[in-house]
């Protein structure tokens, strides 16, 4: 499609935070992308521990409780509001079963998107061999990596040039559980949503 590649920012977004937005904007500029799709995983099987052949080979995944797909989807929509280059794609939350990135890339190719840039955190990039069809993923998309603290990017990937922000969804969930403020770590609308819905107070 005209206007440059499509940047794909997938993830659990439990919750989405300012680091996701900075990453998306920096990668969009660096790789000349016309549009950014945030795609929340319906069932992030590597985190939820859902029984899959991939998890069986890799030892089962994290097995942590994940907030419902509907709530994570709504938080992601709130997070990206206001940037006309950003959009949220719900396809993985609507697809039954584990969310496989390779299926999403196949669908986007079928829709006419031939130039895809897939951005991964360095932890996800290191885990890529445990995903379904990792070779096919790298055939269909230009995979670029954002380094996270304590997780250097694996060799063989282009790096996203961005400020290092020491913020993570894990940190935010922990701060909410402890009753600490999360303002300026997440967009205000996301903070309000977390408060209104009582998310993460019990450590979930």
Structure report:
With 204 residues, the chain is of the alpha/beta class. It contains 10 helices and 6 strands. A 6-stranded parallel β-sheet has the order 3-2-1-4-5-6, sandwiched between helices. 41% of the residues are buried.
N-to-C series of helices and strands? EHEHHHEHHEHHEEHH
Distance between the termini: 40 Å
Portion of residues in helices? 25-40%
| Main beta sheet | 6 strands, parallel
Overall pLDDT score: 93
Q: Which strand-content bin applies to the residues?
A: 5-15%
What features would you highlight for this structure?
six-stranded parallel sheet, 204 residues, single chain, 10 helices, alpha/beta, 6 strands, globular
Give a nutshell description of this structure:
With 204 residues, the protein is of the alpha/beta class.
Layout of SSEs?
Layout: E1 6-11, H1 18-30, E2 35-40, H2 45-48, H3 53-58, H4 69-80, E3 86-88, H5 91-94, H6 101-110, E4 116-121, H7 122-127, H8 134-140, E5 142-146, E6 158-159, H9 169-177, H10 188-197
